[in-house]
Specification:
By secondary structure, the protein is of the alpha+beta class. It has one helix at 2-20; strands spanning 27-34, 48-52, 55-60, 81-90, 93-101.
């Protein structure tokens, strides 16, 4: 009886450990911009998109206007920005759980 209980306990520990090791989405630094204006994607209006390994995906989970005025001189419709994102591709769209626009890196003056 003791062996059976020990076996059940060890089995339950193994199952719990295996469930904890599910792959978590990783943080990535990606190009982000208006899909239509900067990435030349087909669509209507202006929608946030990211570029992953040379392929563009519209973003679900946040919007282009959640990160400032898209049509400002430094907005997503005018420039491609770097963003820290966590998410996954589903149905040919990038579904984010975290999206943070990174500050623009200033170019050092070269003399």
């Amino acid at each position: 009886m003791k062996k059976i209980l020990t076996s059940i306990f060890l089995f339950s520990v193994l199952v719990a450990t295996a469930q904890d090791k599910k792959e978590q989405p990783k943080t990535q630094i990606l190009d982000a911009a208006c899909g239509q204006c900067q990435f030349k994607m087909e669509g209507y209006g202006c929608d946030l998109a990211v570029r992953i390994d040379g392929k563009n995906y519209f973003v679900d989970g946040t919007s282009i206007d959640s990160h400032g005025d898209a049509h400002a001189d430094d907005g997503f419709c005018a420039v491609i920005k770097k963003a820290e994102v966590v998410g996954e591709i589903k149905n040919n769209r990038f579904v984010v759980t975290h999206f943070k626009v990174l500050p623009e890196q200033k170019k050092k003056d070269q003399k």
